Amino acid sequence: MKDIKVLGSGCANCETTAKLVETSAKALGVEISLEKVTDMARILGYGVMSTPGVVIDGKVVHAGGVPDKKAVEAWLLA
């Protein structure tokens, strides 16, 4: 199971990113634990300055803008 955090204030791009991660994981049959992190102190703790950010198993894999679907699939399959 992959531990995934979507970092952001809850804006439209953050919600879109969380939904993209969720639907991609379902389509690929990958089990995930998804958490939406909105606390700015926690977000900055990951070193993310622009949101949405994506953290998988403790590693920041994306920051700023909605990620590409192919990139999300690659992260889930890695």
Short descriptors:
Glutaredoxin, 78 residues, globular, 3 helices, alpha+beta, 4 strands, 4-stranded mixed beta sheet, single chain
Structure in words:
The protein is of the alpha+beta class. It has one domain: Glutaredoxin. Helix content is 41%, strand content 27%. The protein is built from three helices and four strands, in the order βαβαββα. Strands 2-1-3-4 form a four-stranded mixed β-sheet. Helix 1 crosses helix 3. The radius of gyration is 11 Å and the shape is globular. The model has no long low-confidence stretch (mean pLDDT 97).
Helix content: 40-55%
Q: Compute the gyration radius: what is it?
A: 11 Å
- Judged by helices, strands and strand pairing, the structural class is alpha+beta
Strand proportion, as a percent range, falls in: 25-35%
Q: What is the distance, rounded to the nearest whole angstrom, between the alpha carbons of the first and last residues?
A: 12 Å
Q: Give, in order, the helices and strands.
A: EHEHEEH
